[in-house]
Amino acid sequence: MSVGFAIPRIGAFSVWRQKARLALHQNLAPDQVTWREEAAPQHDLFGTDAPFCGARGQRRFAVPQTFLDLAVPVCLHREVQRFALLYEALWRLQREAPFMRNPADPLLARLSGLERAVLRDAHKMKSFLRFRDVGVAASGRRRFAAWFEPDHYPLELVAEFFIRRFGDMDWIILTPDASLCSVNGEVVLGEGSVRPDLPKGAAEDLWCTYYATVFNPARVSPRTMQGHMPKKYWRNLPEAELIPGLIRGAEARHRAMVALAPPQRDRQPPDGSDTDLKPLCFPQPQEQ
Description:
By secondary structure, this protein is of the alpha/beta class. Helices cover 37% and strands 15% of the residues. It has helices at 12-25, 65-74, 82-93, 106-128, 155-165, 202-214, 222-228, 243-248, 250-260, and strands at residues 3-8, 33-38, 43-44, 132-136, 142-147, 170-174, 178-183, 186-191. The strands form two sheets. It has a six-stranded mixed beta sheet, with helices on one face. Strand 6 and strand 7 form a beta hairpin.
């Protein structure tokens, strides 16, 4: 017996969990289940999700929280085998639960690598996404839009971050694979988009001025900079246009800063004595 399941790109973890539960109830081994990804319509980000257990009268499956914490980001990776790998891990959990405590296990190591890649992608998105002002809505709320090109599908992981930070305005985040829209506090995950032609706002000039001001020419390291902010993100960052010029002029700016710095007084005279340093004087004990 073989069963195939289709998992949507949006809300993947919730659907995978339901399908995996069905497969376990039918006692289907990993090689009896096939998984594929499919596109899906918009998704309510705050929709309810049933716990990982069987229905009434059915067998209940014990799943540690560590597995669920691992599965959520893994479902957001681009690896086509991610759902099959997770089901294999779930199958093993019902038979050899201790394997989740062995980081050297090949399956767990592979899943952990997928998890780290997605979490890193989410961190980059929170760091390098830039909103642009697209006007004021009829309700009077400010409206902003942003374009980002992640490596995987991290929108569901970063949604809470942007909701908390920008709850007083309407906004939309567009990516090639999915979109995240917040209007009047209602948040919806939708389909992806092509790169939009977003207007340049006055806030960008202020941000670029600030970035150029705080740029430290004495600590320039292009290799380190690109390690933290790879070039693939530069074309969507307004301040990135300044980076090549700031790097080229860093040495000259550094020399100018050193020349303008007040001279430091030499605290050590040529004779080796130091008139500014005086020994501590302690009161001598009085003889009785």
